[in-house]
Amino acid sequence: MMNQRLRRSRLFKFAFGLLAGAALLVACTPMPRTQTQSQAEAVPSTAAAAVAAPAAPAPRLGTQWGEGRESNTRSVQVQRYTPDQPDEVASIGYNDAASVRRGVGANPERRLNLQLAQGDVEWSVIDESGRAIPLQRARRGTGGDESFRLAGAEGARYTLRFRNLSDRSYEVIATVDGLDVLNGKPGSLRSGGYVLRPLQVLDIEGFRKSQSEVAAFRFATPGRAYAANTEAGDARNIGIIGAALFEIAQPDAPRRPRRGPDAAQPNAFPADGATGYAPPPRYAK
Questions:
Q1: What is the pTM of this model?
Q2: pLDDT tens across 197-212, in order?
Q3: Mind listing the pLDDT tens digit for each residue in 126-167?
Q4: For residue 214, which of 203, 202, 226, 205 has the smallest C-alpha distance?
Q5: How many other CB atoms sit within 10 Å of the CB of residue 118?
Q6: Which residue from 53, 146, 182, 200 could staple onto 266, CB 3.0 to 4.6 Å apart?
Q7: Given CA atoms 176, 206, 230, 96 in this order, what sign does their dihedral have?
């Protein structure tokens, strides 16, 4: 009788152990991922496709809706050579210095800007003193992804700078933490962007509030990020800055042959955009 009770007890413990293991497995299963110009020119929304991206490490920095800064713009109509196909889609990851250092390893490759659209446009991220923040990535062959990252500091302000080195005009769509900097909606290639004329510099200093003002980009904790405090935002996209370029038609400028796009891009444009400007954040009480 005692032996039968002992066997039943062992069977009960074994069955309970199986149930506990199954519960732990379910709990651990991941959830499905459902210029410098005195007056900039902005383009209304047009048709294109959204861009997907691989997941990134958990961010320790996001971008906050900062103080208002004067930035004048006017609406213009332009024609893209290829409305559904950008000439370039690129992204830069960002995080605190310690996280970036761990991600890129020892002796990373460093640059001060990225060359876009076959070298026509230089893209850099500028700090408050006007210097380019170094972009870093792991040397090839060391594992991990090949994307560039920059190290930010909480409270620091930054600017996205696009310098056109060519005689062609481009429409620039930019996103921060997955949100379009013009309308505050989830980034999409359907959205309109800024016009970058030949040999001009375009500085994007913040999320656009109106035709004359932007909310400055400032690094902040993820909980204070704009993407975490607006209905259109998604905290999973915090920590990435995106840019897409479309060449636009202009008189007496021939269209140059284009190379094929790179399909493996970070999640800079996760959803369809819309017209209008970016709404202010709504912080939790």
A1: 0.74
A2: 999 999 999 999 999 9
A3: 999 999 999 999 876 544 456 899 999 999 999 999 999 999
A4: 205
A5: 13
A6: 53
A7: positive
